[in-house]
Amino acid sequence: MNKLAIVLVTLACVFSSHSQAEPMSGKKLYQAYCAQCHGMEGDGYGINVEFMEVLPRDHTDTEEMSSRTDEDLFKVIKFGGKSIDKSVLMPNWDSILTDDEIDLLVSHLRVLCCEIEEE
Amino acid sequence: MLSEAKLMTIKINLLSMIATFVMLMTTMAVKANPVDGILSDCMACHAVSEPSEMTLDERMKRIGPSLFYAGNKYQAIWLEKWLQNPTRLFPAGVYYGEHTVVTDEGDIVLETDLVTHPKLDQQQAQEVTRALFKLKANSEIVADLEVGEIKKVSQRMGSLNFRKFKGCASCHQDAEGDGGVSGPELYTAFERFQLTYLISYMQNPQAWEPKSLMPNQHLKQKDVEKLVGYLKTLSEDKP
Question: Does A28 touch chain B (CB under 8 A)?
């Protein structure tokens, strides 16, 4: 019994040290997935825009961004521009991001547009 | 003082810990493919054996694309040629954020910052190609893949589809210097990749690479065939 416990603890140690996750943040997710189009600073001028027919939303535009609810933002990130009758050039991220990660991004968008502290 | 019996149990426990550890290590070693020594120079920038998992941080720090499924990805003819005369495939590097600077005119890629790829001579390229073709992770993805006939698509319709309807050109070039730069160029994709790789990657990038930065757009089989048909047109109707 005792031995089994030790084996389990060892296993747990090996696996946890292995998969020790660094803290995930909305900012990091944004830099990884969104900044290529929306810009490293969220101003809408990412490295890809020269070749895009519809410009990515400027996430620092306080007025425009304030008119969207958190639910609106969550939906467009998860299901893409198509889901809110906007451009398909805004991709769907449902197979890459978990719902929790999308929540982190929504909070980060509030920092970009309106300087609301990230939770 | 510890009693004799207690010492004994501690010893046994220690032994079982070591045994578990050894067992774990051997199962890990068996899982990894044997990798030819000739690829050791590549490991500074490329993963040549399958990592047990990859975090987003690790993906963002990667210098070159993964090679541990090279045998299921490239066409040997392309590979051998490219290794002798490497061209730029990722116009903004394998993770764009490492090479992007913010300017008043918008974000730009620091091209001088990109890796100049090592060049091999013909004999090295042949040996490396042979070694890379032994790396066959992800075989299960392509094993039962049904590949319909790939018909060429007209340049005009293909381009419209690639750019406007599917949005691939936001991230990929379909002609040199024309198209998004965060993803690899696709105007040589049809010669570069095995057909089964192209098709299955478009259907589900994360099946090949869980931390792929490309979104899965849930394309239908027909859509994928049309897109591949366009890539075929691009490679066969080159100016």
Answer: yes
Tell me if A41 is assigned to some domain: yes
Cβ–Cβ below 8 Å for B106 and A39: yes
pLDDT of residue A115: 85
Which stretch of DSSP H or E encloses residue A18? helix A2-18
Q: ipTM of this predicted complex?
A: 0.84
pLDDT at B211: 96
Do B181 and A47 make contact, defined as CB atoms within 8 angstroms? Answer: yes
Binary contact (B60, A24; C-beta < 8 A) = no
Q: How far is CA B182 from CA B170, B213, B224, B233, in A?
A: 8, 9, 21, 23
Whether residue A36 lies inside any domain: the answer is yes
Number of domains in chain A: 1
pTM, rounded to two decimals: 0.89
Residue B154 contacts A where some CB pair is shorter than 8 Å: no
CATH number, domain at A110? 1.10.760.10
SS3 B99: helix
Q: Does some domain include residue A10? A: no
